[in-house]
Every structure is written in C-alpha cells, then in structure tokens.
Amino acid sequence: MSSFVLCFQDIDKTKLKVVGGKGANLGELTKIEGIYVPDGFCISTEAFKRIIGETSSINELLARLSLLKVEDRHKIGELSSEIRSFIERITIPQDINEEIARLLSKLGEKNAYAVRSSATAEDLPTASFAGQQDTYLNIIGKDAIYQHISKCWASLFTERAVIYRLQNGFDHRQVHLSVVVQKMVFPQVAGILFTADPVTSNRKVLSIDASFGLGEALVRGLVNADIYKVCDGKVIDKKISIKKLAIYALKDGGTKEQEIEQHRQNIQALTDEQILQLERIGRKIEEHFGHPQDIEWCLVDDTFHIVQSRPITTLYPIPEANDRQNHVYVSVGHQQMMTDPIKPLGLSLFGLTAARSMYKAGGRLFVDITPDLVSPVRRKIVVDVLGKSDPLIRDALMTILDRGDFIKLLPDDKQEQSSGNSNKGASSLDFQTLTEYDPAIVSDFIGRSQTSIDELKQNIQTKSGADLFDFIQEDIQKLKKSLSDPQSFGVIMTAMNASSWINEKMQEWLDEKNVADTLSQSVPNNITSFMGLELLDVADVIRPYPEVIDYLQQVKDDSFLDELVKFNGGKETQDAIYAYLNKYGMRCAGEIDITKTCFHLFAVESVLVSVFFYEV
C-alpha cells in the first residue's frame, strides 16, 4: 500500500491525519454491511505535505499568512490568492502521478469522477469545516483529474477557508489536505439525511432533504427540497416543495442546471417506502459511528448510494443513556445560578460529593429526574420542590409533562418498585417537611457541622501523599452521609415551604412580592447576609484613607495586598481584608467549579463599591 495513494478499503478512522475527515469516513462506510459506497481512493496528506515542503516559496507565504488576523481581510485575500496560484501550477511528482494512474486504470479511466477535498480539520466531532474546500463533479479523463486534484489542494487557501481557520484557532501550517477521487453516480434523486432533527435537536426524529438530480443543487441552496421527518419506522411529517431546478451531469464532463418539467415540480421526490428504507440506512450508519450523522446520499435505480457522512456538530450534547427512552435532566449549574461550563476536575469533585448520580454533557452536570416523574406522587413532589426554587424549571417541566406522551406514568404495580430504587430516583421521604419543628434543630446542625470542619482541618494536616487521597475519599463518604440525613433535608424543605407560604400570602394580602427574600436577610445564621454586613465593616476601615482607596482603584497586580503597608492606613486595611478572607474565603462567580480561580481582587472590588455607595 502506497503512503501517497490509498483505496477506500484500506482506510478507516485511524487514518484521519492521512486522508482527512471525509476520506476517513468514506473508508469507515465501506466497512458497514449493506451500505453502498461508490468506489474510489484518496491522495493522502503525505503527498500534500511533500509537495508543499519541496516548494520554499509557498512556505515563505504561509509564514506571512500565519501572522495575519481576521481583521486583515485585504491582506488575507491577496496572500491566499498568491498561494493558490503557486499550488495550481505545481507539477505532481512522477511516482504519485503513476500511482494515481494505476488506480484510475483499475477503476476505469473513462468513468466520470467526483474530486473532493478532505482536510484534516474537517468533519471533526467538535468543529465542522464542511464546504470550506472545493468539490468538483463529473470530471472525466486523467489530465482533468490531475488538474482538479491541484485545484483541491489550492482550495485549502481560499479567503473563506483561511478566515474560518483563524476564527477557530487552527494553524494554517498544521492543516493538511487529502483529495478524494470517487466514481460518480448519476442519481434520479439525491439529498441529505440527518439522523437527528437539526431544527429541534430530537435524536429520535430523523430528517431527510430530497430533490431531483445531483445533490449539489441542494448543497448550493439552488432548490427548495422536500423535507421528510421519520420516527421509529413511521413518516410523521412531510413538506413537499416546488422543485423547479435540478443539476445534472453532462456527457463530456461538468454539470448543468436544468429546469424540471412542470408536472414533476410538485410531486414527492421519494416514496414513503424509500423514505423508510433511507431511515434504516441512516440508523445503521449512526450506530457504526456512535453519534448523530449528516449523510449525503444518491438514489440510483432504487438503490441508495452513500457518498459522504460526517458528525452533526450543531447539536447540544446530551448525557449518555443506556436505552432509547425519553429522559428529563435538570442542570445542576442552573440551579446554582451558574450557566458556565465546568472544567473536568470540577465535574469530578462535584460528582464525588453529590448525593445522587450525576450525568455530564457539554461541560455541565445534570440530574436525571425521569424516575421521579413516572410516579404520580413523586412527580407532584418533584415539580413542586423544583418549582419553588426556580419557576422557569417548573414551567419547562409542566410543558413536557402536559404533552402526555413524553414521560408516561408507570402502572400501579410498578410504581412502588420504582420508588424503592434509590439508585434511580430520590425517595419521597427525602422531600418531607419536619412534623414537629424545634428551633434547636438548626443550631444543633450548625454546631455539628462546625465541629466536623474543625476536626477535618486538624486531621488533614497530618496526611500526605497517598494517605491524603485515602483520607479525602473516606471523608467524602462521611460528608455524603451527613448530606443525606433525612432531618437535614427536612429542615430545608420546611424552610422552603415556609418561604413559599409567606410569599404567597403577602402577595395575596398586601400585594407585595417576594417578601420572604427580604425577611430572610435578617434571619439568624444567614451566611450571605453576614458576609455582606461584614464587608461593609471592611469598607468602614478603608473609608478614612483616600490614598488607599486611590491605590485599590488603580492596582492590577495580584500581589497588591503586600504593597498596602506603604500607604497611610494600609496596615489597617490589610488586616481587615485578611481577617475577612480568613473567615469567609475568597469568593467568585460559579463557585461550584473548584477550578475557578478566586481572586483577592473580587473582595476588594466589592469593598470599594461599598465605600463609594455610602460616601454618595
């Protein structure tokens, strides 16, 4: 097997860097039983790198291109045009030329071919560079194929492709191009198949775009395609468009636009039977690749041929499930008023301490509340509890549940079994309030927590190395046991119900909203209120010293606290800030992610706001 030219049968997903995304996916498609892929081969990235490496003038131009920014549109246009001209004039080395000729002879020199670009930064799971490089259809003859191979190489440096790489942080010198040479098929109908609905992101609904002639008309947006929606072997929706144009292959090469006969413009491009056949093909391809696919297909004499498949990158990732059932997930971050993604270490630590199983997707943590929604009793409790903490989540849940068919209630004989499965859903006991409330319960919990923290601080100082990790793991189990104490949860539920009752009644009686939020600021042991009040005390210390205030307004250095002592009042300010930080720690937005850097400056900015607020 040549390192410069590879047949589809010799290619798989491990050859991504050699044949690019399109080439690797075509190789994988040939491995799927029952999937028809027009035969062909790839000129590898090694050939591209060799040609570029042997041309010093291009390397000099690439070095200049790498220094430009997106804003340098005019310079990008000039430089990229110059690079393309150089590449298109390059003669393909003799050994590579002969290898291409050998395979063309094997496949049929007189056949028509599609010549497609396949970049190493294309059709990736995290970025789609589809359409950034060129595709040429119905190319006939060796000389024409060689010419269009060079054109594909050159298309890596179109102005559009260069700017797209700059926007996505890809180094021009690290992105290489393979070229796919594939036998043409001449379809009656062609189109695109999405194994997940690109509009709704529903993974269970498959969406098909179909039109007459070559699929190029669809890709270029020249026609309105039929759109079919399919779910579990049933066509659930159709939109039959007026299809006035099609692109067809010319006998001597190239393509042409052609008007469709009047009587065919409004007819369905695929029959229902063909639509369902295409659904089965799409699901088989999706299963092979392991994630939703964007597939280009052609229908030739009642046989579907697959000419391309790539991952759909526009879908928001969802937690993995071991079944194809519907699931409802609640975002942990949104419950904490944090919408940012969490770094892997933060995800891991939060998952270790969580009382329930956590599911990851898109750098965020989710709880699967589906088991709680299949029981009428637990459904009401969960919706009520989540609704009190976040009305928007309640509205979203009610929208889903009102559909009726998304989450179905279990039969009576299975509900009790489900409610007892602690691994899947929380017990209804977890959501019960205290029957007899004793104010001493709260102070007792606080006292026990403080004692536990003091003991932890003392004991952890004696640990190091592997013993430290073992100690942390053991302490996490103690923490989880403490967090799952029914009486502790009862206190929370009682407080939430009391708060809800106060808000409801004050709204009803006095037309005042969210009264409980105001009242809670003066409740004993409200740490948030205490932090705010003591921050004002720090502001009181700083206020008499204008030099310190001016310094804190201007400073950007993280070590600024050490410099405070140079100013009148600096030592007093330093002591006050350190005392506050030692008591409450360094706060920041998104604190549930332990990897978020907490800056001293955050606290100081809050202090300065307090200083000026009271001065005004």
General description of the model:
The protein has 616 residues and is of the alpha+beta class. The protein contains 24 helices and 16 strands. The strands form four sheets. It has a six-stranded antiparallel β-sheet. A five-stranded antiparallel β-sheet has the order 1-2-5-3-4. The protein has a three-stranded antiparallel β-sheet with strand order 14-16-15. Strand 12 (293-300) and strand 13 (303-311) form a beta hairpin. The longest helix has 25 residues, at 486-510. The chain is globular, with a radius of gyration of 32 Å. The termini are far apart.
Compact summary:
With about 625 residues, this protein is an alpha+beta fold. About 45% of the residues lie in helices and about 15% in strands. The protein is built from 24 helices and 16 strands.
Query: Uncertain runs with pLDDT below 50, 5 residues or more?
Result: 123-131, 418-425, 599-603
Q: What amount of the residues lies in strands?
A: 5-15%
Q: Based on CA inertia axes, which overall geometry fits?
A: globular
Main sheet characteristics: 6 strands, antiparallel
**Discrete helix count:** 24
Spatially, the strands of the biggest sheet line up as 9-8-7-6-12-13
Helix share bin: 40-55%
The Cα radius of gyration reads: 32 Å
End-to-end gap: 79 Å
Rounded mean pLDDT score? 85
Number of separate strands = 16
* Class derived from helix and strand content: alpha+beta
Key terms:
616 residues; 16 strands; alpha+beta; six-stranded antiparallel beta sheet; 15% strand; globular; 24 helices; five-stranded antiparallel beta sheet
